[in-house]
Amino acid sequence: FRDDGRYSAADYAKITSERQLKERPNFWNPYDRAYKLELRKYFVLRLLNGAMCGLVHMHNHDRLHQSLGPSSVVLNTVAEKNGYYLLPQLRDLAFSVDIGYSSMGVGALSDGLWRRASAAGASTPLEKRAFGVADDMQRLLENTFRLDIYAAREYCLEDDKLSEAVNFLDLGDGAGWELLQAMLNPDYRKRPIAEAVLNHRFITGALL
């Protein structure tokens, strides 16, 4: 969880988007586009895998991140050709919360979390801890997809610039969308924990 690397996942998204706007297809090499897309898919999966590994480690040590987002994932490279050497790490731990049973409910930073847990029906320490873990998972995605994954897919299909992203998430009969939908389930009890996400067929790269 050190602040190593010059870039964040947010920087990668911005740089990649800007590069796409400037690039022209290589008409002399019909395989150029397909090759670049494979590099991108591998890079993105490595990025997600690394972020989830960090989250698994935190949760296994009774810590929630609580401010997880693209800017919280530090990258040592944004060059997709160097995806094999990519080492994502988590930062922005100022709002991290201790969810050890002896610390639960203690501290101003966690007050809002436990209020949301109670509102969601979590009453016992075990249920509140489960809510906290599920809440950490949802924070990474909720501001982007607003809980309706398949509506987001239909929206993306209307934009040619997003077609490759849709195709990527469509791999394995929609494995990417399936995972996102599970992570954004309104019922915290049905959301996968970070370790389950890490082992999902989409994240492991088994579909590439």
List keywords for this structure.
50% helix; mainly alpha; Transferase(Phosphotransferase), domain 1; 208 residues; 9 helices
Structure, explained:
- This protein is mainly alpha-helical.
- The chain has one domain: Transferase(Phosphotransferase), domain 1 (Orthogonal Bundle).
- It has nine helices and five strands, in the order E-H-H-E-E-E-E-H-H-H-H-H-H-H.
- The protein has a three-stranded antiparallel sheet. Strands 2-5 form a two-stranded antiparallel ribbon.
- Helix 3 packs across helix 4.
- The protein is globular, with a radius of gyration of 18 Å.
- It comes from Aegilops tauschii subsp. strangulata (Goatgrass).
- InterPro entries: Kinase-like_dom_sf.
- This is Protein kinase domain-containing protein.
Q: In what range is the share of β-strand residues?
A: 5-15%
Our count of domains comes out at 1
Summing up helix and strand content along with how strands pair, one would put the structural category as mainly alpha
Could you give the order of strands across the largest sheet?
1-3-4
**Radius of gyration based on Cα positions:** 18 Å
Low-confidence stretches: none
How is the quaternary structure best described? single chain
Number of helices: 9
